[in-house]
Amino acid sequence: MKRGDMIIYGCVIIGAGIGLMLDNAFPGVLIGLGAGYLLQYFFRKEE
C-alpha cells in the first residue's frame, strides 16, 4: 500500500468516527476524504 493511500484512508476513518459521534457519518467521511487528499498533496515527494 502506498503512503499516500494510507494517509487518505486514515483521514476517512477519522472523519467517519467524528461524524458518527455527531450523528452524521457521511459528511464526516467526505470531510475526511478532502482532508486526506490535501495532506497527500502536501506530503508527497517531489519527483
What does this structure look like?
By secondary structure, the chain is an all-alpha fold. It has one domain. It is about 80% helix and about 0% strand. Helix 1 runs antiparallel to helix 2. The radius of gyration is 11 Å and the shape is elongated. The protein starts with a helix and ends with a helix. The model has no long low-confidence stretch (mean pLDDT about 90). It comes from Viridibacillus soli.
State which percent range the strand residues make up: under 5%
Largest sheet: none
H-E string: HH
What is the number of helical segments per DSSP (H or I, 4+ residues)? 2
Distance between the termini: 19 Å
Give the count of structural domains: 1
Fraction of residues in helix:
over 70%
* Net shape: elongated
Task: Assign the structural class, choosing from mainly alpha, mainly beta, alpha/beta, alpha+beta, or little secondary structure.
Answer: mainly alpha
Mean pLDDT: 90
Oligomer: single chain
